[in-house]
From TrEMBL:
CDD domains: DEADc_DDX10, SF2_C_DEAD
Basic and acidic residues composition-biased segments: 639-651, 659-677, 684-693, 733-743
Entry text on domains: The Q motif is unique to and characteristic of the DEAD box family of RNA helicases and controls ATP binding and hydrolysis.
Function: RNA helicase.
PANTHER family tied to this protein: RNA HELICASE
UniProt superkingdom: Eukaryota
Domain Helicase C-terminal, chain residue ranges per copy: 274-433
Chain spans, region Disordered: 635-787
Protein name: ATP-dependent RNA helicase
Source organism of this protein record: Brettanomyces naardenensis (Yeast)
Acidic residues composition bias: residue spans: 711-732, 752-761
Length: 787
């Protein structure tokens, strides 16, 4: 009985294999006889000649209806033709090549022993991960195996398993690394080569890498190229060894490749006002999902850190190519599942990535060309959903770039921003940079990287660094001054970068960091001595700071690493870095050029004199708004010239100052006259009281010192003057007791008058202070005349 059961099961297996073989042959015939023109009205996947495993995977993944590019491309790809596919972003190009890859290997009954049957190359890690996840879903019921190889992952883990992979997905750099180092990777039997975002991969940034990969794969293969902006370059097609390629485009208008459900807007703003406009936009759209594109990773870092401290009220994320792979994956997942979020990113996410339900795509910096613009805005309005995009252009970029968009029949609506809606954050950024040296350093690097991104562009009609207001732009970032740009002189002279220099820059940008660190090349291109491989323990002991920018920040504040290092940490503050014995005599200048005077030696050994010789910088003052100004500022020359000729302005200023001086002089004279009149009135009143013998002793003492007050005294102080009078009386008593000594005050005394010639009693004696001014002399004269 058991033997019969075993025999039956074997027979059933043979029947199943035979039936499967017949089904595959039938599918092949259906594929060969399939006419895309006659079947142009099909709308579902189950109407195509596909295997049951693939249809089941598509159904469980939610793919039921065909898109235009899928309806036209899948049958042609199944027939084995080389294909150039172009369609709008978000139109379903991924399934257009994944389904034929699965079906082609199923037809050939591919197994683990056959090696890699399909190679899919993508420009970015995030896009490779996304394609790999889609392949796992639709190929869930297939017997084929798939692998993902990208930078930032465990290379040893990939190396151990790459030999048993049937479909290999990866980025160009990591695939080339495995071809060079992994002995188990076998591409001799490769059936299909797929280049997604082909125009980007075939760009000169990946030229050497792609050429090396093409040299290691057989030329007899099927090649599929897909992109929203497909290349038709004869050189590129010749490099790929295409045989009678079929060009497929689903757009009725071959030039317009942006989604129809996308609303495109443009706003013109000054370079120094871009961050203000971006901040105001984010604050006004807190309950939306926003993707912001900028030119460089350093700009992404600075904007993210500064806006995060300003707290706009929405979740902020950043994504650029300089991040670790783990951080990039976490950010991608967070932004994918978030409903209200703002992501600052570079063009690393501009192609192919499917982030669901993006409401706004903001392009803070002008894209390098129309192709980049199309891919950026394509992150929104995917698969028929609605979306919006906003492009910010400077006045110099507006006219030429809008003409280029018009030549591709891309309609962009212009927007005008109301002044009341725009909020300025210049003072806040300036305060943040003043408080945080790390943020100021990030701002400086962001400034330089933006200038470099403009300088390296070949289209000088749109990108002209010499016309940009860099000083105002630096102030808008909160920087106290404008950083130096090495290539500014070349930009002013109109000298841009040559094609060779641009090629080197892009190749360096896309090159593997590991390969660049292991070996360097000299000027002749010859390989130099390889560096020692740094282990994780070396990295642990070399770690000095855990701030945002450890190594660069330490160089900024303490000079180059190791330049001021000393074995003795407890040494003097000022130490000699090297002695005469340590210096070669050839390095020393001639003796006649060395200042060896005593004054120079004293200045060199004195901390105080050395500090005086150093540049102490310039003093700054802050106004009520928190903006920094020099203590003495000159008016802008252009604004000064707009006011009129300098001679007329000089005469106006002098005449105005003369008028003000006359007014103040009249006021001073009136005040002085009032003081004199009041002083004269008081003196006459006291003299009258003295004559009538109605003055007491204290009042008499007060009378003596009253004339001693200055013209600045506005009101008499009786307590003070009486005290001074008593003091003088005490001095008189002391003079009677002691010998005569010179008096501190020189006084004028009226001569006594004799009565009846008999030497009677002396007349009244009035002691008067010596006149110190003309007014006092006039008052004394008038008094003597009256008596």
């Amino acid at each position: 009985m058991p033997r019969n059961t075993k025999a039956i099961s074997r027979e059933d297996k043979r029947r199943l294999r035979h039936k499967r073989k017949e089904n595959l042959e039938d599918l092949k015939k259906r594929v060969e006889e399939f006419d895309p023109v006659e079947n142009s009205k099909i709308t579902k996947f189950d109407e195509l000649p596909l295997t049951q495993e693939t249809l089941r995977g598509l159904g469980e993944s939610g793919y039921v209806n065909l898109t235009d590019i899928q309806r036209e491309a899948i049958p042609i790809c199944l027939q084995g033709h080389d294909v150039l596919g172009a369609a709008k972003t978000g139109s379903g190009k991924t399934l257009s090549y994944l389904i034929p890859v699965l079906e082609r290997l199923n037809y050939e009954k591919w197994s683990d022993m056959d090696g890699v049957g399909a190679l899919i190359i993508l420009p970015t890690r995030e896009l490779a991960v996304q394609i790999y996840e889609v392949l796992l879903r639709i190929g869930k019921f297939s017997s084929l195996s798939a692998g993902l190889v990208i930078g930032g992952k465990d290379y040893k883990f990939e190396k151990e398993r790459i030999g048993k992979v049937n479909i290999l997905i990866g980025t160009p750099g990591r695939i080339l690394q495995h071809l060079d180092e992994s002995s188990t990777l076998n591409l001799d039997n490769l059936q299909t080569l797929v280049l997604d975002e082909a125009d980007r991969i075939l760009d000169m940034g990946f030229r050497q890498t792609i050429d090396s990969i093409l040299n290691d794969i057989p030329p007899q293969r099927q090649t599929l190229l897909f992109s929203a902006t497909q290349t038709k370059s004869v050189k590129d097609l010749a490099r790929l060894s295409l045989v009678n390629p079929k060009y497929i485009s689903t757009s009725t208008d071959q030039e317009a490749t942006t989604p129809e459900s996308l609303d495109q807007f443009c706003v013109t703003t000054q370079l120094s006002e871009k961050l203000d406009l971006l901040w105001s936009f984010i604050k006004a759209h807190i309950n939306t999902k926003i993707l912001v594109f900028v030119s460089s990773s350093k700009q992404v870092h600075f904007i993210y850190e500064s806006f995060r401290k300003l707290r706009p009220g929405i979740q902020l994320l950043k994504l650029h190519g300089r991040q670790k792979q783990k951080a990039r994956m976490e950010t991608t997942q967070q932004f994918t599942h978030a409903s209200h979020c703002c992501l600052f990113a570079t063009d690393v996410v501009a192609r192919g990535l499917d982030f669901p339900a993006i409401d706004w795509v903001i392009q803070l910096d002008c894209p390098e060309d129309v192709t980049t613009y199309i891919h950026r805005v394509g992150r929104s309005a995917r698969f028929g959903r609605s979306g919006k995009s906003l492009l910010m252009l400077t006045p110099n970029e507006e006219t030429p770039f809008l003409k280029k968009l018009g030549s591709r029949k891309i309609a962009v609506k212009k927007l005008n921003v109301k002044g009341s809606k725009k909020k300025s954050i210049h003072s806040q950024l300036q305060s943040l940079c003043f408080e945080s040296p790390e943020l100021k350093y990030l701002g400086q690097k962001a400034f330089i990287s933006y200038c470099k991104s403009v300088f390296v562009q070949a289209d000088k009609e749109v990108f002209d660094l010499s016309k940009l207001p860099l000083e105002e732009y630096a102030k808008s970032l909160g920087l106290p001054g404008t950083p130096k740009v090495k290539f500014m002189d070349r930009a002013r002279e109109g000298k841009g970068m040559s094609e060779g220099e641009i090629t080197k820059v892009k190749a360096k940008k896309n090159a593997s960091r590991k390969v660049m660190n292991l070996a360097k090349t000299d000027e002749n291109g010859e390989a130099m001595e390889e560096k020692r491989v740094r282990t994780k323990y070396d990295k642990m002991f070399e770690r000095t700071n855990q701030n945002i920018l450890s190594e660069h920040y330490m160089q900024m504040t303490h000079g180059k690493a190791g330049e001021y290092d000393d074995d003795d940490d407890d040494g003097d503050f000022l130490t000699v870095r090297r002695t005469v014995d340590d210096v070669d005599e050839k390095d020393l200048p001639p003796l006649e050029l060395i200042n060896t005077s005593k004054r120079a030696m004293k200045r060199a050994t004195s901390r105080k004199l050395t500090a005086k010789m150093q540049d102490k910088g310039s003093k700054m003052v802050f106004d009520d708004a928190g903006k920094a100004h020099a203590v003495y500022e000159l008016e802008n020359e252009e604004d000064f010239q707009k006011q009129g000729p300098a001679d007329e302005l000089k005469e106006q200023f002098l005449s105005g100052e003369k008028a003000n001086m006359h007014k103040e002089d009249a006021v001073d004279k009136s005040v002085a006259k009032e003081k004199r009149v009041e002083k004269k009135r008081r003196r006459k009143e006291l003299e009258r009281l003295a004559k009538e013998d109605e003055v007491s002793d204290e009042e008499a003492a007060y009378t003596v010192v009253l004339g001693h007050g200055s013209e600045d005294d506005e009101e008499p102080d009786l307590e003070r003057d009486l005290a001074l009078g008593e003091e003088e009386e005490r001095e008189k008593d002391d003079e009677n007791k002691e010998e005569e000594r010179p008096s501190k005050r020189t006084k004028m005394v009226a001569e006594p008058q004799e009565e009846d010639g008999d030497g009677g009693e002396e007349g009244n004696v009035i002691e008067i202070e010596q006149p110190e001014s003309i007014q006092d002399l006039e008052a004394l004269t008038e008094k003597l005349i009256n008596e």
